[in-house]
Here is the input.
Amino acid sequence: MALKDTNGNRGQASLLGILTLGLLLLGQVSTTMAQKNALDWLIDMPDLDSTVAVGMHPRGLLLPEEVPVLRKKLAEERYAGVIPACREKAEQLAKDLQEGNPDARQLAESAEMFALLHLFSGETGFANRAFSQLERLFEDRVIVNNPISRGLTRAAVLRSLAMTYDLCYTGWSPGQRNLVNRQLYKLTYTTQANMGAEANYSLVSNWMGVRWGAALFAGMVWDNPFPEEPSLMDPLVWDATKRLMDHVRENIYPQGWNAESIGYHLYNWSFIGPALIAFQNRGGQGNSRSALEMLAPTASEAVEAMAPTMVNIFAREGLTGMKPDLSDDNLNLGTGLFGLAFRLYPRSQLPQIKWMHDYLGDSSLYSLLYYPEEVRSKNPAESGWLNHADTTQGVVVFRNRFANDKDIVAVFNTSSRRISGHKGPDVNTFRIIGGGVPLVIGAGRTGKIAGQTNVFPQVPDTDQKGKMDAGILLDFGFDGSGSGFAVGQGSNTGVQEHRRKFTVCYDKASAAEAVFLVEDRSENGRIWRMATPEFNEVSLSENGFTIHTPTGYTLRVIALGSLGRQVVKEGKVPYGGRLSRVNPGIVWNGRSYTQSKVIDLEMEGNLKVVMVLKAPGQPEPEVRISDDAERVFVGNLTIALE
Here is the structure.
């Protein structure tokens, strides 16, 4: 009897296996066939085939009454190069797409470029060329017709598709409008539903800002073909709005710092910003600033929090600006943040935002659309922006001035709150940018600790990863001129009871540009390490070393009370792990550098280090420590030691 049951079970299992295999094969064939029909296999809406998409356009980034104003502006001599440059870029992109298999993102960008040309000129031919690129886009099976494709790419395609629809609507035939409107709904649906198998679904992650920002923007420009009935887009818009609010609350701390770093804030807001603008444009509200207050209130402090870290150092064409590389980030800035801010932020912040926009040379589409000619810019130093502290993140910023590319920025970080992604091992670290170069850096986009400026129990291996424990910001203070101090505790490098005090002095009494004092106490700290870009030269001395920059500035590093102490070694480590599109290395002065120099000092648990930044031609100020080891003197400046 038992043998009979066993054989019966085997027979049933074999039959089930055959049926399963058949269904899988049928599913593969069906999916392949269905994907040719632009997601109809997943989202079939035959009722929309013969409907007419009717709505007011544009209404995403700007309103109809603003179009003539924009075109009048473009007719002015100072904007004479905008349309030719846009046309050249559009033609080159279209030419590149004629070769080989077209990439969905490039097709979407190409359509968007022609849509912008239609907006700028009003010529119908540009709208038709945009539509031709969209027809090719709708046949894409890798991204567009794959509902679980990489979500960041799908969201970028959706953003471009929505912008193209909104800007080309007045130049298209009813048939063209209806086709694109239908495809826009389907891509919004899949992006709202998921971000692909490889996504980071943590609420704090920028993936979610990209997802809901793209979906909300698309939902704001989509046209309901049945105006007497509830819109098919309403549930998607409602969900995107609520989820975007949840995301921003987690992603931007109450004092303005981004949980994932400045670089990820810029990327994230390239999706969130347009969505907020489209949201406040609904119903013809125009320049209302309610969107930031309603959907992203914590972001109201973000510009003031992050602007003090940004220096207008030339990196390469189209990438001017540098910032600290905290939290698994790189050193460079992108464009667009301040241009978007013109439309979103309260008028009280616009003078400072305009100053930063001009200082950094921000030149995005948003600058063209929203630049406030009537606003008088105001140097942020006059508004107290030289210092900032975000106690949630545990970050403290010290800046000497807002003037030019030689401005000095020092940042101390404890990573007091750890999130699911982009949490570099940088507890109790500091960064310095000054004299036109990054002077003191971190490890870049990597979890490895060898490139960190920090204290270690031994010389770290190149591939050694850090512990992701959070640190604590114990204390900080400012003097009103950009100078101040911060005290932190914690370690990602295996150092026990590591306490670090970081003091910044911009006092002219030192006869130097800046003086930095680092005081470390620990139980097992043996290596004191500083990292600097490989283009800086390093010369060693008995009690420290000097960094010589290509711009002529020098940073002299002296271990106090350690005369005769030898530098352990000077070496190199890869910056940011492996290079990639999102990890370009250290980009400065038109080149990308792949290595960091690291310089190690020996220590026995405790060490005090003073650093003197000197401009070209400045005399070298005398540095000495008092007999009782309670004070350090730099020129005529006195700093008390712990």
Notes: Residues 2-35 form the longest helix (34 residues). The chain has 15 helices and 24 strands. Confidence is low (pLDDT under 50) at residues 1-36. The CA atoms of residues 524 and 605 lie 5 Å apart.
